[in-house]
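Session log. Operator J.P. requested a structure for one protein chain; no other inputs attached. Running the standard single-chain path with token output.
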Amino acid sequence: MRKIVGIGLLLLLASCASNPYKGSEKIYSKQIRSFSKDLKKKETNAFVDSAGIMVPSKWISTVNFNLRKPNYVIIHHTAQKSTKETLQTFTQAKTQVSAHYLIGADGTVMQLLNDYLRAWHGGIAKWGSISDINSVAIGIELDNDGFSPFSDTQINALIAVLQKLKTSYTIPRSNFIGHSDIAPSRKVDPSFYFPWNKLAEKGFGYMPEPLLTEPVPTNFDPLLALRVIGYDTRDGAAAVAAFKRHFLGKNDGSDLSEEDLRALYNVYCKY
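Structure written below.
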């Protein structure tokens, strides 16, 4: 009997060693079952008018519906030492942070959440009139410390993921953006090392080329242009710095040179 118990314990330990995320997968499945129960409910909400009187209501099932689709992709860098460290972060409830995909420096793609579910990656953010980014976006984390270039292998894997998402959910070209774009006062990811030009060549986002050779119009308002693109300009300097980081690959603050203004005007015209 002791021998049998010992073998069973060894098998259990071997199973845990082969899948260190077995615990998080169990919690994930439990959450999915809970959501499934909520979706099956046919309970009419209680509606009360301004006089405190219940409004008559009942449930009648429609036959025309589907799941809500993501309409944005937000790209991040992890600012951590390894994919292992990031996976530990994303598989512990106490961290309260997650993403749909994590792409390793070696190009390995790890999907962490169903595309239709809401990950916690955007935080306090704003893009255009959208203030709840997490409810409309896919979050993609790239294993990168924020101070190093991104490998071609990693970017090629990212482009493959983006192509699948764009095709599956008909995501507009303009809606592939970075964490720094939606939270310019708080975030700088993906860093100025990120090759946005490579993504734009494949149809994910825009870049300002070719630059105008003539001066921008004299009445051109840079902050208004940034708002049209989508930036939250309540902190104008942060919005300008985020724009330069994304579209110009610069990390030199919020001053706009004549060339920078031309680039901003070009991007503004595309929106």
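Operator note: The CA atoms of residues 3 and 9 lie 10 Å apart.
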